[in-house]
Amino acid sequence: MTVIGGKELARKLSQLPDRIKMNVDRANRQSGDELVRTAKVLIPVGDDVHGDGHERDKINATQNADGSVLVDFGPKSKVIEGERGPRPFVNPALAVTRKRHGARAKRAVNKSVKELFNG
């Protein structure tokens, strides 16, 4: 039994992982940048750890070769109260952006499939 258009479908499906990786990597970068912006808004400005007055500038994101994004929250993100004290701006920033990040990644996968099969 032969399937009409089976080879074309197989060719398109073989292209799908690369297209998904490209779009999801872009979505991860956007989510990382959004997380950095949110953390910069939430960071307390009062006590300066190193005395240079630039705590917001120390929060940055780096995209790795595998598409993941590493966010460095700077020296104020360290736990300073007891063994496992609160992180007053890291955890809220993660909580606020978690749902949007998941939705953005899901949209990136859907976009990849639509681009591949619709033109």
Automatic annotation (TrEMBL):
It comes from the Bacteria. This is HK97 gp10 family phage protein. It comes from Gemmobacter denitrificans.
